[in-house]
Design goal:
It is a single chain. About 60% of the residues lie in helices and about 5% in strands. By secondary structure, it is mostly helical. It has one domain: Arc Repressor Mutant, subunit A. A two-stranded antiparallel sheet has the order 1-2. A hairpin with a 7-residue loop joins strand 1 and strand 2. Helix 1 crosses helix 5 and helix 3 packs across helix 4. The protein is globular.
């Protein structure tokens, strides 16, 4: 079913516009909350993914976070420059780069669960539990291929 046609499409009334605007608001608020840690919301995703063992290579992080490999490389460069992660070549396959959080990276990542929920809960404060669950369900449905 087509929900939009050339006749009924309006940029500011589209789902894409609302999702993008919501993302921008959330990124701005998250970046402000993370400022004292010296990281951005995108870098937060990398650190949390690595700390939880969900991803350990640039390719895995790119796929998980939906970030192109060029941007991922630049973000990893910044995190490495800050001393939060280290890169090493795989001994089995030199094409593979393995990532590891440094001690400082572990400390920053350990603080994120104290900060991130506060920002998210503030944004979600007007939602009932049922509305929150429905929003999450619909967003994941939207992301399905």
């Amino acid at each position: 079913m087509d929900h939009y046609t050339p006749d009924n499409f309006s940029l500011t009334q589209s789902v894409g516009f609302a999702i993008n605007k919501a993302r921008n608001v959330l990124v701005t608020e998250m970046d402000a909350a993370l400022k004292d840690l010296g990281i951005t919301s995108q870098q937060m995703g990398i650190l949390l993914s690595m700390r939880r063992g969900v991803a350990a290579t640039p390719f895995e992080l790119s796929r998980l976070l939906g970030i192109d490999t060029g941007l991922m490389t630049r973000m990893l460069d910044k995190l490495e420059d800050k001393g939060l992660l280290e890169r090493s070549r795989s001994l089995e396959d030199r094409r593979v780069v393995n990532l590891k959080l440094t001690g400082d990276g572990e400390q920053v990542a350990a603080r994120l669960p104290e900060i991130v929920p506060v920002v998210l809960n503030s944004r979600l404060r007007k939602f009932t539990k049922t509305e929150f669950q429905e929003l999450r369900r619909l967003l994941y449905k939207f992301l399905e291929d």
